[in-house]
Amino acid sequence: MEAFERVLEILGFHTYFRPTIATFLVGLSCVYLTGRMLDVVKKDRFRNLIAAISMLAFAILNVFGLIPAKVLDALMIFTGGVVVYVLVGFRLFDRINKYQDRKLEGKVKSA
To answer: Are 105 and 51 in contact (CB under 8 A)?
Structure first.
């Protein structure tokens, strides 16, 4: 296990890769929050702008250590929740909605 941790350290996993994934998740959740969940932003150009601004702000604050550890933990939990909600929740909602439409359509035709 120590050898594996050493390889991760040599590759810079904790220094570069983990913060990169965290920054990506923050940008993705901001886009999902404003674009899909709240339906505030309609155009892809503005979604990309929101993603770029949120990722840049998060990266700068994270690099300078201006985000306290507890706030960072809460932000990561919130970000993960938004991403899972949009990716999984919306798919399940769409499937249930289509299923109900088929069932209701069958009842309307037979009546």
So the answer is: no
